[in-house]
Amino acid sequence: MTSKTPISIFWFRRDLRLQDNTALYHALKQGHPVLPIFIFDKDIVEILPEDDPRVNFIYDTLADIDKELKSLGSSLLILKGKVDEVWQSLCRDYTISDVFFNRDYEPYARQRDAGIEKQLTGAGIMVHSFKDQVVFEPHEVLKADGNPYTVFTPYKRKWLQLYDSVTIYDAPDRSSFLQITNEIPTKNALGIKVSEIKVMPYDLKVVADYANYRDYPSINGTSRLGPYLRFGLVSVRTLMSNIGSVSETFTSELVWREFFMQILFHFPHVVKENFRPKYNGIEWANDEKLFELWKSGKTGYPIVDAGMRELNQTGYMHNRVRMLTAGFLCKHLLTDWRWGEAYFAEKLMDYDLSANNGNWQWAAGTGCDAAPYFRVFNPSTQAKKFDAQLEYINKWIPELNSLEYPQPIVVHEHARKRALETYKIGLAKY
Description:
Largest sheet: 5 strands, parallel
Strand content: 5-15%
Number of domains: 3
CATH architecture of the largest domain: Orthogonal Bundle
Oligomer: single chain
CATH class of the largest domain: Mainly Alpha
Helix content: 40-55%
CATH superfamily of the largest domain: DNA Cyclobutane Dipyrimidine Photolyase, subunit A, domain 3
Number of helices: 18
Order of helices and strands: EHEHHEHEHEHHHHHHHHHHHHH
């Protein structure tokens, strides 16, 4: 269905909610009827598996939004294609006065949005973008000299100094939505196959004890908020308003999220390169057979294998275990962090480029605020410390005490020595 009555369009992206949505709030205030849309970007979805669970999650969330919109006499327009071509079609079908969306800070999104804004303004359409997915944008937390922070602790200190409160944007009169009925396409029509892996519900009850239990993978001590924040089903403002004072440790995790976002924004080279060039001289072993054993959870180190099996089967991995599996790949197996980052990007339900990249470079020692290169965690002692009763390990490795379970593919002491020597040689080149 098309319309020649002047309308505004709200473009859903990483903000899949009707409540406390900044750009949507302003769109509904400005006067013209608002058509909400979502575009499955072919440049993104066509490089993903057809049954990608995250795409399924997005679709199911959009279906819920459409159901709510239909109760208001409106509906969601879901499209698929190259984004610039989709907007060309929209401009032909509708008389568009204004377009509203919330800003994204990833390199691809910034380039895409700049192109779309140029395209729309060239057609005489007003474009309005807003801060929504963060409390502070990358340019809002800077050092006294105007440069970005590259170390977390002073960034966090400044972030907390600047933070006072947040504004919650409740939607005004919902009659401002365009009264139109669009039927959403089926998954099959969009080329989406149903995934057996599902996003788990989040749980905020854990926040009060987060500091005490977050490091123990056998305990349900993490919130599982990641996918909901990644795709914007939960507003970070609402989150801070409700629980920001409950747990300093949990708040720190939200600050880490924005720290890595601003690193990616200011230093986009980190997508493909070491944050610190002095690590460019490291000669990674990159043994493909060992990498496959790591991916499949067959390294002979139970805590590492349990983590990888959890990831492969569920799309989740406990935060402490992520650090151990990443460190093991980079240090014990001397495999380029980019290999591991790419695998996590493929599998993680809560995959977010900035956090994934930042944490992998931290584990490898190549990033900003990185762990020292000479810190090489012993997976066995880490398992004794954080899974002493083997509850987590036994859950994912039922064959642990049988001959089916492999012997360690590397010896910790030897691997540690090799890693230290390799890093020293690499650093000496710069």
